[in-house]
Prior knowledge:
Layout (H helix, E strand, L loop, with lengths): L3 E8 L5 E5 L6 E3 L1 H4 L7 E9 L5 E10 L5 E8 L2 E6 L8 E3 L12 E8 L8 E9 L6 H9 L8 H8 L14 E2 L6 E4 L8 E10 L2 E11 L10 H9 L3 E3 L2 E3 L4 H7 L7 E12 L4 E12 L2 E4 H9 L4 H5 L4 H21 L8 E6 L5 E7 L3 H23 L6 E3 L5 H13 L12 H11 L5 H10 L5 E3 L23 H14 L12 H13 L18 H37 L5 E10 L2 E6 L5 E5 L8 E4 L4 E4 L5 E3 L3 E10 L4 E6 L4 H10 L18 H7 L9 H19 L7
Parallel strand pairs: 11-18, 12-19
Antiparallel strand pairs: 1-2, 1-4, 2-3, 4-5, 6-7, 6-9, 7-8, 9-10, 13-14, 14-17, 15-16, 17-18, 20-21, 22-23, 24-25, 24-30, 25-26, 27-28, 28-29, 30-31
Amino acid sequence: MLDEFEGSVQGHRDGHGYVQRDDGEADIYLPPNEMRAVLHKDRVKARIVRQDRRGRPEGRVVEIIERPEQPIIGRLLHEGGIWLVAPEDKRYGQDVLIPKGATGTAKAGQVVVVQLTEPPALFGQPVGRVREVLGEIDDPGMEIEIAVRKYGVPHEFSEACLSEAKALPEKVRPIDKKGRIDLTDVPLVTIDGEDARDFDDAVYCEPAKVGRGKGWRLLVAIADVSAYVQTGSPIDIDAYERATSVYFPRRVIPMLPEKLSNGLCSLNPEVERLCMVCDMLVAADGEIYAYQFYPAVMFSHARFTYTEVAAILGNTRGPEAAKRKDRVKDLLNLADVYRALLKQRSTRGAVDFETTETQIVCDDAGRIEKIVPRTRNEAHRLIEEAMLAANVCSADFIAEGKHPGLFRVHEGPTTEKKEILRGYLKAMGVGLSITDDPKPAEFQAIAQATKERPDAQQIHTMLLRSMQQAIYTPINGGHFGLAYEAYTHFTSPIRRYPDLLVHRVIKAILNRSRYQLPVLPTPGEAHAKLAKRLASRVKSPTTKPQKTTVAPTKETLAWEAAGLHCSANERRADEASRDVEAWLKCKYMREHLGEEYGGVVSSATSFGIFVTLDAMYVEGLVHITELGGEYFKFDEMRQELRGERTGIRYAIGTRVRVQVSRVDLDGRKIDFRLVREGEDLNARAMKDKGVPPATGTPAKPSTKRSARAKSVEAGSDRGAAGPQSAMQAFKSAVKKAANKMKGRKPRR
């Protein structure tokens, strides 16, 4: 039928669900009764049957097209003589019945992996058998064991892969050096974090004449994984399936076996290693004047940490510099070329927001000890700029060679996001906006113009949220955020499969040959099937029109499929990592129930505000019902909640004080209760942040303390001494505000 469509079922913990359509149209709501016969992740054919009370299209499942082989992870329970498994992922919505003889060695309360033997039906629960016992819920590392299975992350190498890796040599042999440039006398060094175990990039810089002026010769040497991992080999098959390494606190699931990732392909100090080199001439203004690629053999002369390099650059006569005196001059050259490249970044108008990343520090039992911010110093930025330079040269080399490959494409904001951002900037009184076809420089100009405003964090967050996610695709659409016409990933082939493909393509161009991806069995059908599964999560670039309407070749389809696969698995790795971090944070916060913390509103929604705690970097929800006894309306333009009676506003960046009220480990959710609510206090907080009123005129910072603020400071908050006086002060403040509002026209 014409109104039927295909898609994937996305369950919801409350019992209903959605069909995520393959054609990219809006998701279709499935009521709980429709979810009885289907499972989360099922591929179905459905049709729209009605509109629900909220005006949403409501669907009915016509046919189950495919039920993926999806193990369900959960706790084994024994209730009333019946064995069942309660899924850890609540999107499945139904417990799985386990026949008496299908529990295996599992005991009640343990975490198990279940294989379905009977699907759910309208009047019957799904039935399964225990396939694997993971252990007790509080076992160290259990959250990772759950996540890798929940998200389908491959975590065990095949026997063929391990066997092939075992047969690889222990070190670089004379035969391996054939046809390579010998760079063992060049003092290349690695610069990584203290806890890094694999080193896939090394750098060296020296002054050089560029054209008629001065400049630098910058070498970026990257581990040559393609020398050991042949297309279609067992190692390659496993690497492609994983597509990326997955990073968890205290554990990494690598893309390659350890013999490669920490051995042969790791640029360890004082050993020979095979590498691919991007050799660049950089002019004084940071422009890359010329570049060349070649395979080489190198010898890392030192393993530096970011902290060490930053200390040396900060004080060339300090103790760190004294220990590395032979390398100080080289590091200073790297710092010089970095500053030139940074100047070029500014000239391009690349977007450069400073964001706070966090690191979870765990104890030996796998529990969080503390959450600390990752500080980015000059050494981090130095390496980042060198890697960006090598990546942009790689993209240019592939484009100039007219060879298919995978570009890293980051498009500008969608039409919808542009409208939201424009409205927001206008509502916030920002004198700048974006055009219909915005350039990165416009975003950077807004960031620079607002960086001194008290609400700068709020504005910069909205700028970031207006942008799209980057993807891998053979269709070059440029990189919006970095302001590059072409960009790709070349610098991390140990942990990213697209980088390995880029290395193979570069070698093919150098050898005047053509790299051929393994052809899909039935290219058209297989690609269409893969595209349908992944396109709903990862969309190909659409802003640039196609030059031709000729049907794509088998080769093009294979590259498109590879891009979709790598992009989707990158998202999968991110989701699994976030899930584990959320689990750990929930377990951590369970030990702090009832405690109070200061925090900042990180986002506002129609159902409440999300608050990130200052000292702990943990985010939780303050539900709208906890904001006070009045009606709050969500202002989409300003991205804030506003009380209709008092005018209290909660926007990104608003400072609040909250109490940890509830932790849902299964749902990975933390709920806060607002401790210091009150019209005067919060109005003062918004004024102190300089948030302009509706007229667009910036509010002057207030230095007066409100009656509510005084009562709070005197200890008369919720649960403290003197609650009656606090309530009287609050009511008095509300009454005064109401009197002031009389006779005023409503703000629109």
